[in-house]
Design goal:
It is a single chain. This protein is of the alpha+beta class. It has five helices and nine strands, in the order ββαααβββαβαβββ. Strand 4 and strand 5 form a beta hairpin.
Length: about 170
Amino acid sequence: AGVIACPPSVRAAAMTNTITYRQMEPDEAPAVSSLILGSFDEYIGPEYSPLGIKEFHKYVQPEMISARVGRDHLVVVAHTVDGLAGMIEIRQNNHVSLLFVGKRFQRQGIARKLLHNALAEARQRTPDLERVTVNSSRYGVPAYEKLGFRQTGPERTVKGIAFIPMALQYSSGT
């Protein structure tokens, strides 16, 4: 996958840098894990049971992220000169496993660009891709709806992790 540089948004103009999107390097797993846990603990974890928090924390440990990338997962990261801004993990080219943007980088279109870049790579790997799914937290539903996802079933809880199943019908313009 190529590197795509995007000019900063008006809100990010004070940062005076560009954002690059590319596949995660193996040595970035600790930083990716840290970014995920920072957002999860602030926005999502408070709604989870202790079991759900434990399960989620286990899933996003650096060694677990690295192991999944070695199998059938794709991780795309967004970087600025100030560091990691966001990440997306796609399983089997058709399911968003994780999508997180750091607090100071939110509401700048980074999630949309992460999704776009990951789907472009997924489409190269799976040309007949038509649908992408996600199990969203309650907190994430409005953001996923803005990205074009629609709820496909009722909220569920598995191993203490509550989620709302959603799907995006893929098109070449997504």
